[in-house]
Amino acid sequence: MILGIDTSCDETSIAVLEPPQKILSNIVSSQVKLHQSYGGIVPELASRAHLENLNVVLDEALTQANISLHDLTGIAVTTAPGLIGCLLTGLSFAKALGFSLKIPLTTVHHLKAHLFSPFLEKKGTMGPVLVSPSGSATHCSSELEKDDFFPFLGLVVSGGHTALYYVKNFDEVECLGETVDDAAGEAFDKVAKLLGLGFPGGPVIDRLSRDGNRDAFSFTRARVKKGLFYFSFSGLKTAVSFLVKEKKAQNFLSDQLVRDISASFQNEVVETLIEKIRLAIKSYPVKGILVSGGVAANSRLRERLEELSQEVQLPCLIPSLLLCTDNGGMVAYVGARQLEQGKVAPLDCNAYASAPMW
Fold it and tell me: Hey, which CATH number is domain 2-116+324-340, 3.40.470.10, 3.30.420.40, 2.60.120.620, 1.20.1420.30?
């Protein structure tokens, strides 16, 4: 029984996993209401909230899993990257728990946890979705299917990260490119703030876009000099800012116009992600595509991934909605694999706001 703990940002999550991939519980305590009035995450408030929530979330995770603390055989905790105060809160909690129970502790890279999150299984909505080239979506239910998925192209796209990976196996992961400025999810939040839509911005822009015209406005796509597989979204955010200021000056920012701007912006973000995936497929021999992270919950992105799967004749693995956001289950899964390999962290291990996966 592996306990997975994630406090990398604004969600306190603890899960219990029975290896190799059976989730017995996966509790997520959101801090959205706490940060809404600020229009973004306040690190100090997030750290304090984790401190208040951890014991409560742990009790709920153990109750739902129907086990006691003494049934645990290992602990996995996120230690990078993320908000340093939040990471240290979770790490200190994990160290104390592991020391008192005399069970091994392993540290998990947050992006690696996201990268392998679709490999988790559970009946119902927890199951990852495998989109076949024929367009049909099924639950990926056998270990053989997952082993056969390597090497794959992995895109982690969230509020804090946008990065493309070539994954040969569990231990060999090459970063092909990442964002040079704003992450995709961060751009969603900033544009939502410009439009007065509140925080977090991703879900509300996704919802409004369904009634908007995604061809209403065209934006110049950023070309990043650093490399073919790198991303940039700050220019897009600035373009939307200028457009909103212009419409406000004309007293012409109607509800429908907000929907059209949202749809056009969302479409540009999605098409940028799809373009990078398509380019990478041409350069690297892969058996499939995997997209994870909070933005993977976006309905337009999921639609385009289904279309891309048919276009390039490759299966695409997308996590269920719960596993898109930060959660302890994905940390427990990677942690269980690491503990099997004997990767045990010492008690003086540390957390890092930024760190490479390798």
Answer: 3.30.420.40
